[in-house]
Amino acid sequence: MGRETATLRVEPQTSCQPDRRRFVRHRLDARLVVRPTDNRSRKIHGRIADLSKGGISAVIAANLQLGDVLELQFELPYAAAGVLLEAVVRRRESYQYSLEFVHVTAAEQEKINRTCAALSLLQ
């Protein structure tokens, strides 16, 4: 009788931690205007890197802090009108920021949801 051995196969992981995001990200390159809510006269320009139903990732050439609340203004593809809403800074790595939408109206959320659905078909 031959000797049988079991082979253990381990699949490589792409990340050390499970993805905790609630929403799928969609690549989007779009201009962004940011105004801190505590100083709306300050106008900062940036670029959106990706969009989800709950927020954006953006490059913003400013020293923003975690927890800062910002007014965001940007255009979306496939939307007739631009978006104006508030977001809070959740993560920062150099000038790359993760911003979570807050106080979003139903109309603005619908624009974002439609854009995410369209982008998911293209990516």
At CATH level 3, the topology is Thrombin, subunit H
Strand residues, percent: 35-45%
- For the secondary structure, the number of strands is 6
**Overall pLDDT:** 85
The appropriate CATH architecture is: Beta Barrel
Identify the CATH homologous superfamily: predicted glycosyltransferase like domains
Outline type:
globular
Nutshell version of this structure?
With 123 residues, the chain is mainly beta.
List the SSEs and their pairings.
Blueprint: E1 26-36, E2 44-52, E3 55-60, E4 69-74, E5 83-93, E6 96-102, H1 106-122
Walk me through what this model shows.
A six-stranded antiparallel barrel has the order 1-2-3-6-5-4. The chain is mostly beta strands and 123 residues long. Strand 2 and strand 3 form a beta hairpin.
Index terms:
1 helix, single chain, Thrombin, subunit H, 6-stranded antiparallel β-barrel, globular, 123 residues, mainly beta
